[in-house]
Amino acid sequence: MSLLTPELLSNIGKVEAPRTEVATRRDIRKYSIATNQKQRKYLDGDIAPPLYHVALFWDVVELDELSPDGVSIDKLLPKFPLEREMAGGLDIRLHDQIYADDVLVATRTLTDIYEKEGRSGALIFYEIVMEVCRENGDPVLTQKTTRILR
Which of 27, 18, 17, 40 is nearest to 101 (CA)? Predict the structure, then answer.
């Protein structure tokens, strides 16, 4: 018997409201120093290094709004019947660099929910695609995140 009900599957295609953030030179510099970048273009804050965008669009929430794992609860997701979450993959396609003072708009879509049988029982997979563009619509990156619930 499947854990995925028609109601749960009806969430596929759900889109989160776009979020807008500015890639400031100061934040790029701080991220570059924190991640031990060596190239001057990153350390000067001219261009954001790889993975800079990952935390840029995270919610900033109060401590009591964090999950036991210390992350904010993703409001794009429905309530799943399995709750122990693991990383399943991250695929990032860069279309252009992120530059200092870029105004970036991210749109996240729940693109798939499916079930597989594992050694210890049922597993639920879900995929979220985040498209990041400049405010003029020029694409910057596409990120597909896969998570596994058991």
Answer: 27
Asked whether the beta carbons of 101 and 25 are under 8 A apart, the reply is yes
pLDDT in tens, 28-38: 999 999 999 99
Mean pLDDT of the residues in the chain: 94
- The total of other beta-carbon atoms located within 10 Å of residue 12's CB is 15
Q: Which uninterrupted H or E stretch holds 33?
A: helix 25-34
Phi-psi region of 108 (alpha: psi -120 to 50; beta: other; left: phi over 0): beta
Question: Distance between CA 41 and CA 87 in Å, rounded?
Answer: 31
Q: How far is CA 30 from each of CA 18, 100, 109, rounded to the nearest angstrom?
A: 25, 12, 29
